[in-house]
Amino acid sequence: QVQLVESGGGLVQFGGSLRLSCVASGSISSIYGMGWYRQAPGKQRELVARINEGGSTNYADSVKGRFTISRDNAKNTVYLQMNSLKPEDTAVYYCNVQASEHARGAYVVIWGQGTLVTVSS
């Protein structure tokens, strides 16, 4: 019922910036945590950043100071502003949302389809 649509990925040069967006829709009652993960080919998926309903954030050490996660609760949207991008940031970025559905108040964890970020040297 709840679905996520990601956008904003693309090709950028070293030092450039991108802004990822993830919009949640469907039979949503409440949204709790929202976050971004990334996965490079042949590598494990790793946490990039998370933000809870109250606005508290958590970042991977590798992106702290360069990336900023934010959310717009009225729009059911989470953003990831990525600055000073490096080639090692190249990966597929996945949105993740923890929410409850209207149907029977079920708690669900939903993943977006992924958006590719490529940073050239």
**Helicity level:** under 10%
H/E series: EEEEEEEEEEE
Taking the alpha carbons of the first and last residues, their distance comes to 40 Å
Oligomer: single chain
In this structure, how is the largest beta sheet organized?
Answer: 7 strands, mixed
What is the rounded Rg?
14 Å
Secondary structure tally: strands = 11
Describe the global form.
elongated
Which percent range describes the beta-strand content? over 45%
Count of separate DSSP helical elements:
0
Ranges where pLDDT stays below 50 over 5 or more residues in a row are none
- The overall pLDDT, averaged over residues, is 96
Structural class label: mainly beta
Lay out the secondary structure.
Blueprint: E1 3-7, E2 10-13, E3 18-25, E4 28-39, E5 46-51, E6 57-59, E7 67-72, E8 77-82, E9 91-101, E10 107-111, E11 115-120
Parallel strand pairs: 2-11
Antiparallel strand pairs: 1-3, 3-8, 4-5, 4-9, 5-6, 7-8, 9-10, 9-11
Give a structural overview.
By secondary structure, the protein is mostly beta strands. The protein is 0% helix and 60% strand. The strands form 2 sheets. Strands 2, 4, 5, 6, 9, 10 and 11 form a 7-stranded mixed sheet that branches. The protein has a 4-stranded antiparallel sheet with strand order 1-3-8-7, with no helix packed on it. A hairpin with a 6-residue loop joins strand 4 and strand 5 (46-51). 30% of the residues are buried.
Would you summarize the structure shown here?
This protein has 121 residues and is mainly β.
